[in-house]
Structure formats: structure tokens, C-alpha cells
Specification:
19 strands, about 0% helix, single chain, 4-stranded antiparallel sheet, Methylamine Dehydrogenase, Chain H, globular, mainly beta
């Protein structure tokens, strides 16, 4: 199954093999900016310009939970590896952790000085990393909510982040045409890849 979000405010679930649209999820009132499947594939999380975070039951397409504490558009969402927590990043410069069982916001991470564009959990579930319009990448302890490192090197907004499977390396991408590979433990930039126009 594939999920897509759109400026038409909907999410569509597709059969990858046939190309058939299986379900259309309706509930957002503005552009859907990011979506993510839970590790067990039963729940979909979505965020949008309507400032909300939504959880959807894949089996019937119903919205089962809506979180509404962000003050501006929500740009990115990710599940923890155990599927119990989601993290959302917003244009309000904050990152919020949510307990999907209770619907409660359990932590607010606030050290970015501009819009947050990307959030992702490390595969070991110990770290959240975030990329921002303030040109920085921040590493956060999931357990304490503390910012444990700030990575600097991009000259424009950090749009996308991804961890290696062993949680030891991070990759970041930016409109500055640079892809950077970082050592998560030391914060050192190991390599800068350039070639995109």
C-alpha cells in the first residue's frame, strides 16, 4: 500500500500492484504536508497547513484522533520505532511528542528559531532529529527532551533528514544544493555531496 497527501486536503491509499485507489481519507481543511505509516502498518499519521495532526485507521479510513496544539502549519510527522509516540514539527518553530494511546502532548521541544521542516526518529528510538529554516539540525534526547547537539553547515533551510539503519549516521538535504553526512555521536560532518543544480 502507498499513501499520498495533497493540496486538495485529502489523503489517498493506493494498491501499489494495481494502481487502484483503495480509500480517500477526508478530514484536513488545508494542504496535507506530511504522512507516515505506523511500524505495524495499521495507523497513518498526517499533518497539514490546518495546524492539526491526525491519526487514521487504515482498515476503515476513519480519523481516530486529532491533535490541535500547534499554532501554525504542521510540516512533518514521524512514528517512533515502537509505534507508541509520534513527533510533529511545525512552522511555529516547535516540535511536539504525542502519546498515541492517550492523545496527550508529552513533550514540547523548543530551541529552533524558525520554522521546523523535518523531524525523524532514529531507528533505535533514542534520538529525534529536526531540520529547520534557521539552517540548523538539532538532535534531541527522546527520554529527556533535551537538545543534545546542534549541527551547522547548511546555508539554507534543512528540508529533509534520514538516519542510517544503525542510528550512527545522519543525512541532511537542503536547497543550498548540498547533501551532508553526519556522525551522530560527534556531530562531525563526515562528507558533503554536491552535484544537484
Amino acid at each position: 500500500m502507498l499513501a499520498t497527501g495533497s493540496q486538495d486536503k485529502t489523503i489517498r491509499l493506493w494498491n501499489v500492484n494495481t494502481g487502484e485507489c483503495l480509500k480517500t481519507l477526508v478530514g484536513h481543511t488545508a494542504t496535507v504536508r506530511s504522512i507516515c505509516f505506523s511500524p505495524n502498518g495499521k495507523i497513518l499519521a498526517s499533518v497539514g497547513s490546518d495546524k492539526t495532526v491526525k491519526l487514521w485507521d487504515i482498515s476503515d479510513g476513519n480519523c481516530v484522533q486529532t491533535f490541535q496544539e500547534h499554532a501554525q502549519a504542521v510540516s512533518s510527522v514521524a512514528f517512533s520505532p515502537n509505534g507508541e509516540i509520534i513527533v510533529s514539527g511545525s512552522y511555529d518553530s516547535t516540535i511536539r511528542l504525542w502519546d498515541i494511546r492517550t492523545g496527550q502532548c508529552i513533550k514540547i521541544l523548543q530551541e529552533h528559531t524558525d520554522e521546523v521542516h523535518s523531524v525523524v526518529f532514529s531507528p533505535n528510538g533514542e534520538i529525534i532529529t529536526s531540520g529547520s529554516h534557521d539552517k540548523t539540525i538539532k538532535l534531541w534526547s527522546v527520554k529527556t527532551g533535551e537538545c543534545i547537539n546542534t549541527l551547522q553547515g547548511h546555508s539554507l533551510v534543512v528540508k529533509s533528514l534520514a538516519f542510517s539503519s544503525d542510528s550512527k549516521t545522519l543525512v541532511s538535504c537542503s536547497p543550498d544544493q548540498m547533501v551532508k553526512i553526519w556522525d551522530v555521536t560527534t556531530g562531525e560532518c563526515l562528507k558533503t555531496l554536491q552535484g544537484h543544480l
